[in-house]
Known about the structure:
The protein is built from 13 helices and 12 strands. By secondary structure, it is of the alpha/beta class. Helix 1 (about 15-20) runs antiparallel to helix 10 (about 255-285) and helix 4 packs parallel to helix 10. The chain is globular, with a radius of gyration of 22 Å. The chain binds pyridoxal-5'-phosphate.
Amino acid sequence: xxxxxxxxxxxxxxxxxxxxxxxxxxxxxxxxxxxxxxxxxxxxxxxxxxxxxxxxxxxxxxxxxxxxxxxxxxxxxxxxxxxxxxxxxxxxxxxxxxxxxxxxxxxxxxxxxxxxxxxxxxxxxxxxxxxxxxxxxxxxxxxxxxxxxxxxxxxxxxxxxxxxxxxxxxxxxxxxxxxxxxxxxxxxxxxxxxxxxxxxxxxxxxxxxxxxxxxxxxxxxxxxxxxxxxxxxxxxxxxxxxxxxxxxxxxxxxxxxxxxxxxxxxxxxxxxxxxxxxxxxxxxxxxxxxxxxxxxxxxxxxxxxxxxxxxxxxxxxxxxxxxxxxxxxxxxxxxxxxxxxxxxxxxxxxxxxxxxxxxxxxxxxxxxxxxxxxxxxxxxxxxxxxxxxxxxxxxxxxxx
Length: 400
Ligand SMILES: *Cc1c(COP(=O)(O)O)cnc(C)c1O
């Protein structure tokens, strides 16, 4: 029975847990799903009850709208289950989920390490606001090892940020090695785990705080923005939750409800999209116009062994590098001609997307040159044969 007497066991499969997590009967009144509970004011039975409840600000206790309600708590439970953590906080966007833990663990005079392949707006936050507040960031080669990480750490390094694989360039990081070096120096390890979702279990690999853009596969339908910050330790929870609350972070219950709906079918969507993407990626790799396909699950990927060691699967986002002779204008025209792919940012929805990456990649520690014009593909739930036919027609317009 999917109720509070029988929470899903961690030994059960991912699909089972996504079907049953976050459904205590007290929240559903007997219905299958938790409803949308909107609210600011929570009414207390007495003044004394109010004082008592205020003591439970780190628990799922309703005291005011910003403390969350049943719909938030259901999604928190589902996200904690996805990430294998003890507590999750839901915020309005994936970017907010990056900002909250950075602000929680960094103060003026501190130093942070961030991979050169980090999600662009995270770099923007470090180079803009955080730098302005006297927080220094060193961007590092995402392929750094344990000794290399140790060499980059300074006495004031408080955060080592990771994202694996990297945005647009798909380098797989040795997160456990980086985490060992960070922890030896007393720094916290933060990870943007959006690509990995449940395929990378952050807390089994030394991560302290895991960030997800729920906007992607959890929502899954390209119609809601949400983010989550997950931890696996009571002290980290108090730090992250306090800062999120102090800054007034909140997510709409309507959006949380849509994310809950998405989460129930995420395992099956992800499985299908992942299979479709691998089929498309393998096909692309064999085409004369294509120089390289940047997909960690392909044996040709430089960190494929690391991927096999730490991930249980891939999602459906990867990169394609064309032959050096292809011009940017030719690539743009080929992408513009695709019929089944939308040209747009974000990913994780049911529909396919294509986006040029050449010229949009920012690098300061490593070379941004991929050796040819590149673009990123997100593969949706369309039939792979149709997707391949669409790509085949586009590639035919390019010099081989
Ligand atoms: C999309 C994305 C985010 C940000 O999510 P939003 O909800 O769009 O703010 C963060 N990290 C990665 C890796 C992303 O792809």
